[in-house]
Amino acid sequence: MPKIIDHDQRRREIVAVAKKLIIQGGFEAATMRSIVAAAGFANGALKRYFPSKDSIVAATFQSVLAEMNEQMGADGPSPDPREALRHDLEATLPLDQYRIDSARVLLALWEHSVANEELATLYREHLHDWRRRLAERLAAARGKGESADAPAVTELAGEIISVSIGANVTSLMFPDGALIPEYRAYVDRVMRNLDD
């Protein structure tokens, strides 16, 4: 009886291998040859799932962004709007080794997306969705009856996104997590100053 292969699972495994290689050695480390070797596939088998390195890169980028969206999408332990906002803020900052590693992958993929319009479009869509979701959370948490597109809300959403992206980049220079207390303090300041 022939062995049944779960092709979606194989794709996820290949993306996980690509992500691991990028974490360990940067974008250049994730060559087709190194991915095949690390995944334990024959050379031709990889092409069945991903015809090119760009297709693996796109899938890896989508995977990391999906993980980030998933972390933000959960309301956390409380339906309280302020706690939901805190949860989202913490989900986007490099507050543990997993998120520091994910930042390394994102940085490599951001650089690659500059020359790849498909990836750039994917990330712009992610930024747009993130800003919208964050503005909704902020408006609810501020409790002033503001709409999500009120200037004070959209300005704060933009600032938080910029700080989060900057924190993810900076965390790569401190992979031991030395900046985690600073990022936690930032979340506390945002929460304290919501009513301003």
UniProtKB/TrEMBL annotation:
Pfam family name, one: TetR_C_6
Annotated signal peptide: none
Keywords: DNA-binding, Repressor, Transcription, Transcription regulation
Domain HTH tetR-type: 8-68
Domain of life: Bacteria
Chain residues forming the annotated DNA-binding region: 31-50
Gene3D superfamilies: Tetracycline Repressor, domain 2 (1.10.357.10)
UniProt GO MF annotations: DNA-binding transcription factor activity; transcription cis-regulatory region binding
Entry protein name: HTH tetR-type domain-containing protein
Natural source organism: Streptomyces toyocaensis
